[in-house]
Amino acid sequence: MRYVAIAGFTVALVLLVVVEWAARREGSRIPTFGDVCAYVMRYEVGPVPVGRIALFGFWWWMGWHFFAR
């Protein structure tokens, strides 16, 4: 089961690289990863920066599950 998870994350990483490469081509309408992160970071509900909280929560979750052992 561990190898299936590793393969899944490897496939996801390769797809992320392919989409980023496609986004950086001349005349592409696909947003880059940086553009998507900037859009999420700007999202607010009233004075609460929901996008920043969500992004922080995502990185916390990733660190907790993959780096804390």
Oligomer: single chain
The description of the largest β-sheet is: none
Low-confidence parts lasting 5 or more residues at pLDDT below 50?
Answer: none
- Report the principal-axis shape: flat
Terminal CA distance reads 18 Å
Helices and strands, in order, run as HHH
Helix percentage: over 70%
Tally of DSSP helical segments? 3
Strand content: under 5%
Task: Round the Cα radius of gyration to an integer and report it.
Answer: 15 Å
Quantity of strands, as a count = 0
The residue-averaged pLDDT reads 91
What is the structural class? mainly alpha
Summarize the structure.
This protein is mainly α and 69 residues long.
Describe the structure.
This protein has 69 residues and is an all-alpha fold. It has three helices and no strands. Helix 2 (33-42) packs across helix 3. The protein is flat and about 45 Å long.
Layout: helices, strands, pairs:
Elements: H1 2-23, H2 33-42, H3 50-66
Helix pairs in contact: 2-3
Sum up the structure in keywords.
69 residues, single chain, flat, 71% helix, 3 helices
